[in-house]
Specification:
The structure is a homotrimer of 210-residue chains. By secondary structure, the first copy, chain A, is an all-alpha fold. Chain A is built from 9 helices and no strands. The interface between A and B is medium-sized, with 31 and 30 residues.
Chain lengths: 210, 210, 210
């Protein structure tokens, strides 16, 4: 497992990249200018992590201090601008990588919160915030109700992943890496299955009229 | 006054509960799903306190670290989902408890900021932020202009309460508890009176056309 | 150059004032009440700096702790309410002072981040956040897509100013004050020229339909 660190790094950059692509695409569809597209791409990719870092006291936030995140966001914005028709046609792969990014950010968010000595509730909540915070900020900036609050199993998958990471630390003789991979696989599978079978959480629009 | 600590705790949970109910009800009316309702309920109940804790350097924010807030938000969301017609009919009691929550959050927000050694302006401003921040975040997430910026005496009542707490510390020989109760009563009365008599702060829609 | 500190202070207050005026005017046009106008004015003037201070670990944020910012915001709100026709007619001077405020906040934001020991990327990004963050928060609270993400050369000018400040520290034998004035002049000129000649960054609305 000597390659695990590199594997994580690859996944982290992948998650950043696909989140940035999704942000840049949404920003372009709303007619934002070059700078607006880059801001939204960077916000989706790094916004959740920045909120997490402020809450756990990791100053400055990694999303601001590490140039790799900015570079990946720039690259994703360039792709969304220069190769928009291809990006739009890549809808299926983007959804797959987005599910991977969601899973990874939930796992690393929970792990980083634990590493800073916070309790299990903080770690679980901030795992979810890391995974979905960027998407919520994107929708707030684009002036719409965050889509993850309305439909689809998205944040719930992140909640399950960060819970597995946190409660997995109580299981003796099992490595953190093993638990993380389990959490990644379950979260990613749940997200992809919910997309495929169109699973939604219940809402209460009809019954609220009585 | 041996029971005062318990009384505060009861009021704090009451404030959390009614704020969560108001958030869950608003989220349900907008057609959010199960997770969205819980997120909005938790945001209204804890959002203001989390912003305050970030600004005073109380890391991690109590709203994330203390399980009672999450549990109360979950309970309130359950009520808003399962007993929606009853919650809607309870409009008057909810407004009363909301006024109580507003008052209490303003008082405790100002007190916590002072306890962390910050100056009087920080304490007054963050008292108001604690009291109204959650409601502002709710309206931002639900994609509307925050209602407290548009009408009714709401934030002003919180401003008065946190000012009383802060300037009360300069009066010799008067206990903090006594000052806090004065601030609570005045803020809560002002809010309820403004609801009853439909007091509003002036706005300038007509005159802005000249 | 003994007067430079006073000059900076004058510019800082000027920037705060014009940003507060722009916020109060926008809030009044949306029909917010007295309190709402003050909140938006204060948010535009201090919001970017508060986010910067949270990210660099300057607790409490200067915008909350220094009474001058609040006083200037109050004064600007009073003007926007009492002398609205005059403020509207002052459109050209306001745009000029807004460009000055933008330039100054970008410069001081980058300088403060460097002074707290953060790296060049953090300083550049937070220079931009200081300059444009308040305007973004204003638009989010007023429920519209931030105008700076859609058109005009605004954030780009701030980016250039904060980059000059940061990279200028690597030039030997040149004082920080000199670099800051260069950055101020370039940013302010670029902003004013872009207003005059109606320069915009490209957006991609038409080409996105293919």
């Amino acid at each position: 497992m000597i390659k695990l660190q590199e594997f994580y790094f690859f996944l982290d950059m992948t998650g950043t990249f696909v989140f940035a692509i999704s942000g840049a695409t949404a920003a372009r569809q709303r007619g934002l200018d070059l700078f607006g597209i880059l801001v939204i791409a960077f916000t989706v990719a790094c916004g959740g992590g920045i909120i997490r870092d402020l809450c756990i006291g990791s100053i400055p936030p990694a999303g601001l201090a590490n140039w790799r995140y900015l570079l990946v966001s720039l690259f994703a914005s360039g792709l969304a601008i220069g190769f928009f028709p291809i990006v739009q046609r890549m809808n299926r792969p983007v959804l797959f990588f987005d599910a991977l990014g969601l899973s990874l950010f939930a796992v690393t968010g929970a792990q980083k919160s634990l590493a800073y000595g916070h309790n299990i509730q903080v770690a679980i909540l901030l795992g979810v915030v890391t995974a979905v915070g960027g998407g919520v900020l994107r929708d707030v900036l684009l002036n719409r109700v965050p889509v993850i609050l309305q439909k689809e199993i998205y944040a719930l998958a992140a909640l399950i992943a960060s819970s597995i990471v946190v409660f997995g630390t109580f299981i003796p003789d099992v490595s953190t890496d093993f638990i993380s991979i389990i959490a990644l696989v379950i979260c990613c599978s749940l997200r992809l299955l919910s997309l495929y079978y169109k699973w939604n959480l219940p809402n209460f629009i009809d019954s609220s009229k009585d």
